[in-house]
From TrEMBL, chains A, B:
Residues 1-58 form the HTH lysR-type domain. Belongs to the LysR transcriptional regulatory family. Keywords: DNA-binding, Transcription, Transcription regulation. This is Transcription regulator, LysR family protein. It comes from Winogradskya humida. Gene3D superfamilies: 3.40.190.290, Winged helix-like DNA-binding domain superfamily/Winged helix DNA-binding domain.
Length: 291, 291
DNA sequence: GTCTATTACGTCGCCCGTAATGATC
DNA sequence: GATCATTACGGGCGACGTAATAGAC
């Protein structure tokens, strides 16, 4: 059974004539006759009685006609739907992400997303969350993945993905003791981590000295590992592979902002960005029912 | 878009491999690759991402897969359903009918039924209703069309189709007057018409003389037209084309049995007979909605 | 090195078109 | 005689198979 046969059959019934159907289909009449004949032979029934002047549906023909219409209709629907999804599959997507993402597997997300949407050109930009939010404002990135600080401006919308904790990291073999006089490594003033450090130190009753300024979490860890000082940082980064450091849990750990998906409020996400947002959220769910 | 492409695509996804799908389909792998490629080209989207070791559905592929399964499932259903109807289309059907059928167009019914069920071999047997009922008892006919008399044995089931009236027919130019001394033409004793004649005459206070016995309604009319006598008969027969007679309505016309479809109670109708029964009943309805 | 998908290429099938025949009004 | 469907026959497109190539583990 071929689609062509169903199309021809429907046309013959609709026009009530092999000749008119053939004209409508832009083919010769014998082709129509042959296909109808083949269909009848395969199904083993007569579909319509020909009287050279008029055709009439048999009971089997009536049944087939109804089913054929359904099938052909669904086929048209498939073409439309796939084309619509295809439009989403096109386009560009720029994602901004900080280094510290905790349990969020950005690499895996990008890989599976690219498999599911190979037509979308992906670009990734990393940096501190403040810089990335600036890129969001300027329309340079569609979505930002990073820590969501408490003082986040309300022109952004947030979807939380994972929690994060704060730990103290020191060089290996560094004696545990008072932190008051330790040199600290931290991000530049104005960064979220710097605020966390000050908050924690103030709670402990001292002003931290920050002689070393790093430009990213990875750098902080490298500097600490080299013995230049100590630092507070996200637990996930401290525990991930990298330069060796001693990780010390904090008794009264300040709140570290969780990792979230940020977008510009009021600016509608592109279809590609919306698809990626859903994809990341879906990936965070522990049980992923594939179908 | 071809059915073959949908089948191949579904097989590839189900097996998770071009090679296994090809083996299952009993074709070579390149044929599968080519068809999937054609499908993707026509739809303008990538359906699955190949990594030579594993295939993954894209979003468009997932959508198409769901639709394809529906369509292929419906196609299987069509084959089954048509085959089932095809079984009904086969077989033999023997119909018995009396001459007098009133507004029931048996010829038309047989013609349209044959157009709708060309695979059913039709046979028609005519005669008096008593004979036909005998044929029904002996299994020689599946259905009987004819007048349904009041004394019908309850081993038959009845579906009424049309009413019938009784008229008096006389030769042309015959003077209207008392019927007491007229010679009557009628069917043999025991027939339904004979009973009707006696009932009417008794009501009028006389015993009818029946010197002429005919073997069918048409014969009655011919004998009356020839001037041999008068008769009571079904109005439809009297008014239909044939030998000229004078039709006289009766003041106190006895009830003439209506025309009905008779079958043997307890004996299940063959599929062909059931279809014909429905067909005749449907044809009797004034408005015939074709779809 | 093995397994898998793609590309290359030749062959066969079948769908279509033209022409002739048959049937019905 | 006109119209319509069917048969007869030839050509061309396309799907399949075999073989070779490229890529992933």
């Amino acid at each position: 059974m071929e689609l062509r046969q169903l199309v021809y059959f429907e046309a013959v019934v609709r026009h009530g004539s092999f000749t008119r159907a053939a004209a409508d289909l832009h083919i010769a009449q014998p082709a129509v006759s042959a296909q109808i004949r083949l269909l009848e032979t395969e199904l083993g029934v007569t579909l319509l009685t020909r009287t050279t002047r008029r055709i009439a549906l048999t009971a089997a023909g009536e049944l087939l006609l109804a089913r054929a219409k359904r099938i052909l209709g669904e086929l048209d629907g498939v073409r439309d739907d796939v084309a619509q999804v295809g439009a989403v599959l096109r386009g560009r997507l720029a994602v901004g992400a900080t280094e510290v993402l905790g349990t969020v597997d950005l690499g895996g997300a990008l890989a599976t997303f690219h498999r599911r949407h190979p037509g979308i050109a992906l670009s990734l930009r990393t940096g501190l969350v403040a810089e990335l939010l600036g890129g969001l404002d300027r329309g340079e990135v569609d979505l930002v993945l990073g820590p969501v600080h408490a003082d986040l401006a309300d022109r952004y919308t947030v979807r939380m993905l994972a929690a994060e904790d704060v730990v103290l990291v020191t060089p290996l073999g560094h004696p545990a003791g008072g932190l008051r006089d330790e040199p600290f490594v931290c991000l530049p003033p104005g960064s979220g981590l710097r605020a966390i450090l000050h908050e924690a130190a103030t709670a402990a009753g001292f002003e931290p000295a920050v002689p070393f300024e790093a430009s990213g979490p990875g750098e902080i860890r490298a500097l600490v590992s080299a013995g230049l000082g100590v630092a507070v940082m996200a637990g996930s980064t401290a525990r991930s592979p990298g330069p060796p450091v001693r990780v010390v849990p904090l008794d009264q750990a300040p709140e570290h902002p969780g990792i979230g998906l940020l977008s510009r409020r009021g600016r509608r996400l592109s279809p590609a960005a919306a698809a990626f947002r859903q994809h990341v959220i879906h990936q965070m769910r522990p049980n992923v029912p594939s179908r």
